[in-house]
Specification:
6 helices; single chain; 229 residues; rod-shaped
Length: 229
């Protein structure tokens, strides 16, 4: 066993040592913390400097270059100028028109409106009929009178009038009035059939003489007095 005095002495010595160690350890720990704090501060300063360096340069450039104020009118004007430039290419574009066909609808041909002919007249009134209807059948005055159905007792009156009107020429035509045929029927178109056919002409004249004057004798008397009938 250790005497109580030794325990007391050791204990006091150890306590003193421990106190000395504790006293020496305090400054040593505080110095280490200070070094760590310095390095941490330097690292933080470096990181802050790296992060703020671009911002600083941007601010410097912004301070050197004056701020440009862009109005709404200036922006719209720039857009308006850009649109024509984009719509107009540098080189003209040649269009190929060979594949297109243009069809123009023709105007309808107007239908001619017929001119109404006054009653009692025809289109051939006052004009000589065409040469295609001229008579070329031959025959004699006696044959024509017989074919027309005129009584032989009236042939003398008929011969007198026809000789002075046409000279028994079936194709005789009045150049001014257009009267035609043996008895110069006017207008020529009134004669049924053809005014240049001697039989048709005499048949019409027979009806005209009887209907207008009552007989061939009365028609003859009118002609001798007036030189027309």
């Amino acid at each position: 066993m250790t005497p109580g005095s030794e325990l007391t002495q050791r204990t006091s010595t150890e306590v003193a040592r421990q106190s000395a160690r504790a006293a020496g350890a305090g400054p040593r720990w505080s110095r280490r913390r200070g070094v760590v704090a310095v390095f941490a501060a330097l690292a933080a300063a470096g990181m802050a400097g790296g992060a703020l360096a671009p911002l600083g340069s941007s601010l410097a450039v912004a301070q050197e270059k004056p701020a440009e104020v862009v109005s709404l009118w200036a922006a719209s004007r720039g857009d308006a100028q850009a649109l024509p430039n984009a719509a107009q290419p540098d080189a003209a574009v040649a269009l190929d028109r060979s594949g297109f066909t243009v069809y123009v609808t023709p105007k309808p041909t107007p239908t001619p409106t017929p001119t109404p002919t006054p009653e009692g007249e025809s289109d051939g009134a006052g004009a000589a009929p065409s040469a295609s209807v001229r008579y070329s059948g031959g025959g004699s005055s006696t044959e024509w009178l017989t074919a027309a159905g005129i009584p032989e007792s009236d042939w003398g009156y008929v011969d007198y009038i026809v000789s002075r009107e046409s000279g028994w020429n079936p194709n005789a035509t009045n150049a001014s009035s257009g009267a035609c045929g043996l008895v110069q029927a006017y207008p020529c178109s009134k004669v049924p059939g053809s005014g240049y056919n001697p039989v048709d002409n005499l048949q019409w004249a027979n009806g005209y003489a009887v209907g207008r004057y009552g007989s061939w004798a009365a028609a003859h008397a009118f002609w001798t007095s007036n030189h027309w009938w």
